[in-house]
Known about the structure:
By secondary structure, chain A is mainly α. Chain A has helices spanning 7-40, 57-63, 66-99, 104-116, 119-129, 137-144, 159-184, 188-197, 201-212, 214-229, 233-238, 253-262, 267-293; strands at 43-44, 52-53. Chain A binds chain B through residues 2, 44, 46-49, 127-128, 131-135, 139, 142-143, 146-149, 153-156, 241-242, 245-247, 262-265, and chain B through 1, 67, 70-71, 74, 95-96, 98-99, 101, 177-183, 190, 192-193, 245-251, 260, 376, 378-379, 382, 385-386, 389-390, 393-394, 419.
Amino acid sequence: MYRNLTIRQKQIVWAWAFLAIPVLFYTIIRFYPTGNAVLISFQNWNLLGDRTWAGMENYQKLWNDPVFWKVFKNTFVYLLLGTPISLVLSFVIAYHLDKLRFMHGFLRMLYFLPFMTSAVAMAWVWRWFYQDVPIGLFNNILAGFGIPQVAFLQSTTNALPAVLAPAVWAGLGFQVIIFMAGLRAIPTSYYEAAKIDGVGWFTVLTQITIPLLRPTIVFIVVFSSIGFLRIFDHVFNMTTNNPGGPLNATKPLVLMIYDTAFNGFDMGYAAAQTVVLFTILLIVSLIQLRLLRST
Amino acid sequence: MKAHLKGLVLAGLTSSAALLASAANAVEIEYWQYFFDARVEAMETLIENFEAANPDITVTMTHFPYADYRTKVAAAIPAGEGPDVVQLFYGWLNDYVEAELIQPLPADTFPAVQIDSDFFPMVQAMKDGDNYWALPTAVRSLALFYNERLFEEAGIDGPPETLDELMETAAALTKLDGAGNITQVGITAGMTAQDHHWWREGLVRQFGGDPYADDYQTVNYNTDAGAAALGFYTDMFLGDPPVTAIGFMDEPQAAFKAGRAGMHIDGSFRIGSLNGTRGLKWGVTELPANADGTRSNYSSYWVNAITTKAEGEKYDASVKFMQYITSDEAMQIWLDTVGELPAKPSVGLTEANANDETFGPFIRGLAYANTTKFANESGQRQLMVEMVERIQLEGMDPAESLAIAAEAEQKLLDEYYAE
Lengths: 295, 419
C-alpha cells in the first residue's frame, strides 16, 4: 500500500511518523491533564471521594472570594514590579559588562551563579537575612548602629518586595547573558558610522542599541513575565510557616492553588483557579507575541 | 510495518505484565506512615518484634514526606496498590470512610465495649455502632517546656503554675538590646505552631468559654470568654512591655532550642528533638491553670486502620498486625522512642509513667484534655493566624478580628458538613 503512494504522500507519512512521538507525548503529558483540569473545575472533588458536578459553583465562589482578588492583585504586583526592575537592571549590567575587558569572564560567571543556584536554598538564606534580631543579618547590622529593626517578612507592606528581591536577583544572570548576546549581534558597522558622524553616546544608545535589541527585549519580557506570574518557590520557602502571609500579603496565585488543592483538598476550586491562571498567562503571552511580530 | 508495530506493542505489554506479576508465597503486608524520624524508628522496632512472633508474615513499611501523604494514599488504594494498614490523622477519618479507603476493624477481635473501657475516651470518635474504624497507638497533649538555665539566671525558683504567674515569669525572662529589640523572649508565641490549640482548647475554656458547640460543628468562641482569651494571648506581644515577639527567630521551637526563649508550649512529640540538643537544659510542666485552678489541654492522635485493599490472608495478617501495634507493649515502645503517650490509661497512667519527669506533665494533661474535631486543620489554623495578624499588623480592634475569624471558620465548617 505504501508503495502506491506518491512522493508527496510518502513525505507526509514520514513527517507524521516522526511527529507522532511528540504529538503523543504532548497529548498525554500536556493536553490530557489540561483538559482534565478544566473538567475538574466544574466539579467538586476532595481527592478521596467521587467527583460530583458543581456547574459554575467554583467560579462563582472565586468571583466572591476576597482572598482571590487579593492574590490576583499580588500576582500582578510581582509581574509589574519584577519585570521592569529586572529588565532595566540586567540591561544596565549587560551594557557595561559588554564594554569591560578586565576580568570579563569572571564577572559574567558571578552574575550567572545565582541563576544556577537552587531557588529553595536561596530562599532560605534570604529568609535568614530578613529575620529579626538576634539572628537576622540585615537587622543585626541596623541594631549595630542603634537603629530599630525593620519588619521585613512580618509586615503587610514590606513582605512582598522583600520576597521579590531574591527572585529578581536569581533571574538576573540569565537575562544579562541574553542581553549580552543581543548586544554582540548588533553589527559594529552601525557604531562605526555613528562614530564618523560624531554622535553622542545617548543617541547611539537610543537610536541604535535599543531599537536593534528589540527582539531580545521582547524575549526577555515574555520570559520573565511568565516567570513572575508563576512565582511560587521563593514565596513558599520564605513563608512556609504561614504560606503567602502575613495576611496573604505575599500570596501569588500559584500558591493559592497549591494551598486549596493540597491543604484544603478542594480540587474543583483549585482547578478553577488554575483555569484562571492559564487564561491570564495565555492572554499576556499572546499580547507580547503580537508585539514581537509587529517588528 | 504494521506487523512490526503490532509486535512491538505486544512485546511491551508482555514485559510490563511480567513486571507486575510478582509471586508472593509468605504473606506480605504493607504499612504506610508519614516521615518523622522517631516514628519511623519506633515502627521499625515494632515490625521487628511482630515478625519475630509471626514468622509467616512480613511487614514492609513505606513512608513519605507529610506534604505528599494524603495524595499518595488517595491515589494508591483505589488502584489496588499501596498499604494494607495505613496511618491517618484522626481528623481525616470521615473522608477516608466516605471514600471507602478503609474498612472497619472486626468486632470479634476488637470488641467496642472492651475498647471503650480500655482506651482514653477521646478515641471513641473512631467508633461507629459496634465497630471501630481505626485505633491509635499513641496520643498527644500539650505542656509547657522551660529552659532551666535561663530560669536560674533570672533567679526564678520554678515554672509558673497559673496564667498570671506565666506572664510575670515571662516578663522576668525577656531581654532587650540597646535599640529596644527583643533578644530573648520570655515565652514563645505564634499561632502557626501549637498556640492555636492552646488558645482554642486551653485559654478559651479557662476563661469560661466553650470554643465549639454541636459536636464541633458550630463556632462558639465569639463570646466574652473568647475575647478575654484573645486579650490574654495578644497581651503577650502587644502588652507593655511585651514578653514575646511573633516570628522571633523564625519559629517558636527554634527559639527554644537555641536557648533564646524562657518558655515554650509544645506537644509531647517535641521531646525527641529537644533531647539531643547540646547546651540546652530543659524541664517540662503542665499548662498553667487559671485563677480558680482550672486547667485545660488539647489532645490529638494518629490512628492506624486496615484499608479496603487488604483481603483474604492479607486481611488476617493485617488484623494481627493491628492487634500488635495497639497492644500495651507497643505503646510503651512508642512512648520510649517517640515520646507520644500511650492511648490506654492502663499503660499511660502507670505509676512510673505518670510520675515521669518528662512524660508526667503530658500524661496528667490528658485527664483534662479536649480533642478538636477539625474539618480542615490547616485551614482552621490559618484563620487563627490571621485573627492575630489583623490585630498585630493592622491594628484592628480585637473584638472585630475575633468576629471575622469566627464567621470565616463557621463558613468553613458549614461547607465541610454540607457535603
